[in-house]
Write a structure and sequence with these properties.
The chain is mainly β. About 0% of the residues lie in helices and about 35% in strands. The protein is built from no helices and 8 strands. The chain has strands spanning about 25-30, 40-45, 55-60, 65-70, 75-80, 95-100, 105-110, 120. Strands 1, 2, 3, 4, 5, 6, 7 and 8 form an 8-stranded mixed β-sheet that branches. The N and C termini lie far apart (about 60 Å).
């Protein structure tokens, strides 16, 4: 008999628990009416324009619209969401934006408790 130990592989979006080396950013992706949106990927950009490759990306939001991003670098990031990551934005494409600050920015510090829930709104006045 050969026994092979099983190793649990973490999702590609990051780690499974808190650490002094990372922190979590999470919340809900919603439409302008406040309804949760499944299938959106939340992202953190280093640039306020949110163009180009994001620094961190979540798995698709669940049926409840919830997302989670693990972050392993401190700094100011700009939080948004898109239905599809990896291609250029199309004319008229609605992206989600964090509305907790006028510029959609959040400050991430490592080793801190998880940041409070940060909702992202898709559509409406952006």
């Amino acid at each position: 008999t050969v026994r092979i130990p099983v190793v649990r592989v973490l999702k590609k979006s990051g780690w499974s628990g808190p650490s002094l080396l990372r922190t979590r950013v999470g919340g809900t992706v919603r439409d302008a009416a406040g309804r949760p949106l499944p299938g959106y990927r939340a992202f953190l950009h280093a640039k306020a324009t949110m163009l180009g490759k994001p620094e961190f990306v979540s798995e698709p939001s669940g049926a409840d619209g919830d997302y989670l991003i693990w972050v392993d670098r401190e700094g100011v990031f700009y939080l948004g969401a898109r239905a599809e990551i990896g291609r250029s934005r199309e004319v008229g494409e609605e992206i989600g934006l964090y509305t907790g600050t006028p510029d959609h920015a959040i400050e991430v510090r490592l080793g801190a408790e998880a940041l409070p829930a940060m909702d992202i709104v898709v559509g409406g006045a952006q």
